[in-house]
């Protein structure tokens, strides 16, 4: 789990006048789930395409520790790739499509058939194996596509937007499934826009913006580096004073409604001291605290409004 399976050193990719990826560095350890995040156009797909050898970096270096030795990209049967543009054969029966892909990855027909049948049953598609793929809903097609990616048990799976088109129940199943693959030792590079899911899945996160690293690390370290503190919602029994006194450790405060305040705390604020000060403003009926989510951190890092400066109809208060 500690060995680096992939090392990316200052890679750069330019398309005409656009620098899609600009001296990007990161490492992925064997057996981890690594999330590559960023706004549209940040350079995620361009990065993935270099990692799997579809394109080559203009400069910089990619080193993949394949079983047979170091490679400049993740290629061959060690790779399982779920592309953003889904491209399975719509007019073929589901099972045949999967067997075909399994065969392409070196499985015997019998093995591919056996594995595909198991996976289809597991994902509630067992009874639809003989139907044409195009007859399935988008979410079910997505399941088939994921099966085709991992059927041959790749060592390194690259999943581009694996959750798109899935309902919440199936999102949870995909989450479990990816965790299971990790437990079996598979390394997973995940690119997705569903921050709440990524937050529960990723061991390490790289947040890209404009081709460069905006932040990287575990969720905990991103929380720390973002400087975003906990948000505290306080509900008073009666309306608190209109003019709030200065509250130590509070960076920002908003009135949510007549009796509720939302306070953004500095990361080093003293909760006991603050609670004492709040009690001085009136009887407290309820408290709810929330650590910054990946969603908050993401918005903060890519320059959008952060969680602590959300626009709200409620009037601003002086802390
Ligand atoms: N083949 C190409 N030719 C020209 N420009 C390209 C090409 N591929 C990507 N780009 C440009 O490079 C930049 C990064 O694009 P990329 O597709 O890597 O972003 P992304 O992070 O994957 O975005 P999204 O979340 O929308 O998929 C964009 O400005 C894009 O227009």
From TrEMBL:
The keyword Nucleotide-binding applies. It comes from the Bacteria. PROSITE patterns: ABC_TRANSPORTER_1, ABC_TRANSPORTER_2. GO terms for molecular function: ATP binding; ATP hydrolysis activity. It holds the Pfam family ABC_tran. Residues 6-235 form the ABC transporter domain. The keyword Protein biosynthesis does not apply. Keywords: ATP-binding, Nodulation, Nucleotide-binding, Transport. Belongs to the ABC transporter superfamily. This is ATP-binding cassette domain-containing protein. It comes from Natronospira elongata.
């Amino acid at each position: 789990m500690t060995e680096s399976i992939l090392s990316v050193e200052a890679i750069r990719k330019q398309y005409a006048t656009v620098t899609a990826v600009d001296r990007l560095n990161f490492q992925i350890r064997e057996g981890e789930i690594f999330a590559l995040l960023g706004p549209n156009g940040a350079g995620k797909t361009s990065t993935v395409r270099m990692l799997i050898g579809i394109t080559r970096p203009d400069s910089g270096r990619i080193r993949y520790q394949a079983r047979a030795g170091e490679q400049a990209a993740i290629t061959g049967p060690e790779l399982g790739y779920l592309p953003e543009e889904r491209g399975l054969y719509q007019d073929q029966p589901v099972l045949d499509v999967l067997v075909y892909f399994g065969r392409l990855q070196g499985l015997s027909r019998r093995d591919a058939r056996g594995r595909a049948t198991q996976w289809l049953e597991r994902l509630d598609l067992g009874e639809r194996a003989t139907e044409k793929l195009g007859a399935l809903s988008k979410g079910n097609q997505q399941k088939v596509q994921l099966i085709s990616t991992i059927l041959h048990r790749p060592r390194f799976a690259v999943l581009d937007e694996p959750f798109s088109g899935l309902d919440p129940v199936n999102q949870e199943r995909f989450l479990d499934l990816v965790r299971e693959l990790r437990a079996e030792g598979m390394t997973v590079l995940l690119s997705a826009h569903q921050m709440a899911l990524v937050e529960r899945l990723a061991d390490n996160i790289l947040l890209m913006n404009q081709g460069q690293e905006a932040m990287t690390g575990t969720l905990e370290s991103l929380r720390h580096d973002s400087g975003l503190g906990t948000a505290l919602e306080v509900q008073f029994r009666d309306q608190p004073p209109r003019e709030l006194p200065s509250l130590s450790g509070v960076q920002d405060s908003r009135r949510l409604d007549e009796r509720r305040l939302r306070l953004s705390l500095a990361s080093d604020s003293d909760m006991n001291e603050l609670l004492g000060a709040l009690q001085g403003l009136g009887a407290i009926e309820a408290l709810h605290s929330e650590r910054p989510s990946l969603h908050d951190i993401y918005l903060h890092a890519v320059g959008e409004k952060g969680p602590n400066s959300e626009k709200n109809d409620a009037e601003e208060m002086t802390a």
